[in-house]
Amino acid sequence: MSKGVLLLNQDYSPLTICSMEKAFILVFLKKAELLSEVEDQMIRTVTRVYPMPAVIRLFNYIHLPYRGVVLTRQNIFKRDRFSCQYCGSGKNLTLDHIVPRSKGGKSSWMNLVTACRRCNTTKGDRTPEEAGLLLKDQPHKPTYLMFLRDYSGSVRKEWMPFLQTRVKT
Ligand SMILES: [Zn+2]
């Protein structure tokens, strides 16, 4: 029950993960349709057995403002899976400007990475090349979907067809 239900907009774009209770209500009120059920799992009440929703779709399109991921310290840590992008350590994490601010480096998804205090101190006011450090991954700007898919930590297999189709966009 804890994983929740993937809620799709009318155009099949993923909106959010909602609770099982909310999904039931939306389907019951005919505001959404059941697209996919969780295999081999049913919800039993005293008198009835219901399929457990995995994916539902709204009948009416919802217009949403910007759905990007907000640039915050915590979200950068999340993107980098809470590990130093230079040595892989998960301890004493800080934010590092790849190109230092003193050299015109910006605070952006592409220029900020998670770094442990030791690597950050070693790097100092230099670029990774200058400091002889190597980035494990090229930083990227995450999309909302990537956060849903990669960082919710509990993605149902029934969600995948709906998430994958939109990742390209
Ligand atoms: Zn490090």
Which oligomeric state applies? single chain
Quote the distance from N terminus to C terminus. Answer: 30 Å
CA radius of gyration:
21 Å
Number of structural domains:
2
**Beta fraction:** 15-25%
Number of helices: 6
Give the overall silhouette: elongated
Structural class, from secondary structure content? alpha+beta
As a percent range, the share of helical residues equals 25-40%
Nearest-integer average pLDDT: 86
Number of strands: 6
Low-pLDDT ranges: 165-169
Largest sheet: 4 strands, mixed
Order of strands in the sheet with most strands? 2-1-4-3
Hetero ligands: zinc ion
Order of helices and strands: EEHEEHEEHHHH
In words, what does this structure look like?
A four-stranded mixed sheet has the order 2-1-4-3. A two-stranded antiparallel sheet has the order 5-6. The chain folds into two domains: 83 residues, no CATH class; 59 residues, DNA Binding (I), subunit A (Orthogonal Bundle), CATH 1.10.30.50. The protein is built from six helices and six strands, in the order E-E-H-E-E-H-E-E-H-H-H-H. The chain is α+β, with helices and mostly antiparallel strands and 169 residues long. The site of zinc ion has 8 residues, from strand 6 and helix 3.
In short:
This protein has 169 residues and is α+β, with helices and mostly antiparallel strands. It has six helices and six strands.
Any chance you could write out the topology, listing elements then pairs?
Elements: E1 5-8, E2 14-18, H1 20-28, E3 32-44, E4 49-58, H2 73-79, E5 93-97, E6 112-116, H3 117-123, H4 128-131, H5 144-151, H6 160-167
Parallel strand pairs: 1-4
Antiparallel strand pairs: 1-2, 3-4, 5-6
